[in-house]
Prior knowledge:
By secondary structure, the protein is of the alpha+beta class. Helices cover 40% and strands 21% of the residues. The protein has helices spanning 3-14, 18-32, 37-42, 50-63, 127-137, 155-179, 182-186, and strands at 72-81, 90-99, 115-117, 140-141, 151-152, 191-198, 203-210, 213-216. A hairpin with a 4-residue loop joins strand 6 (191-198) and strand 7 (203-210). Helix 1 packs antiparallel against helix 2 and helix 4 crosses helix 6. The radius of gyration is 18 Å and the shape is globular.
Amino acid sequence: MDPDYSLVLEIIRESESVSAGMERIIARCNERLPHSVWAELSGLSYEEDVEKLRDWLVNVHAADPPGLKVAILYFGLRECPNLEDDECDISMDIALCGIAEEPVNKVALPPHTEVNYVPKEPYADSAILSKIRKVLDSIIIEPEDEDEDDMENGPVDELGTEMLGLTYANLAMREVCRQIQPELLLGDRESRHIAVGWDEGDIIIMGEVSKGQFRVLANG
């Protein structure tokens, strides 16, 4: 297993807070690709989004709850056009849908999945994910050769988007699921899994909701 992915799983299971977990993944990113942007990203208020995300998910379940056949609530990370900021063309957000099949050994999505639930308000509108994307989008990489032009973004941007997006989304939804009554997430089911990840990349079976409890998985 990729060591960075293993670290993300460990952070989800063990970090006491969202901020503490983000500090660990940012430190790893700085080890791999040193850059001043990591210090700027460390200064974001990572806890501020959780209450908003919790209210969004509660409202979604109140207005448009998933049906009995939804086995997995999947919170998918995606990049999307930014229509509210002239300085950054691309934003990052979470979109919710439901999947009919059970996860494989509580570790991965099945190879063939059927989306059987999309709420009327699927987007979380995460302020922190948008801020992460804006900070990364502003990077200018100075070339090693002084005759070359400056390069925008590059591998630092790619690493930050993938790893910080994946880690933050999982930690934030972990905290949201801890704060919400399990019965709201379950409906009439005995249990339901929570998956978080990139639509075209790593997807983590982050947790499981059952009668009276939510427990973190993230076993990889």
